[in-house]
Write the structure tokens for this entry.
Amino acid sequence: MIRVIAASLVAMIGLVPLIWMGATSFKPPADYVSTSVSLWPERPTLMHYRALLETSAWRLGLNSMVACPVAGSNAPWTHSLPRRP
């Protein structure tokens, strides 16, 4: 039981940066450089997502979604090749 509680605490601590990053993506620039700490922004905005979609930056994400599975699917084949002496 103690292991489960410890693992849950470690998982929660590991999720905090991801939650913080997601919440910060909805903050205006003045909020994420301020000295006050708040998890959720007082004035949420979608300006960063609009800027992302208006530029061609979405293609970089698409490239990663294609390149990573292709590279990952090749790994078992390349690692199972016999070594040369």
Q: What stands out?
A: The helical segments are 2-24, 29-32, 47-54, 58-79. The two ends are 50 Å apart (CA to CA). The chain has four helices and no strands. The mean pLDDT is 84.
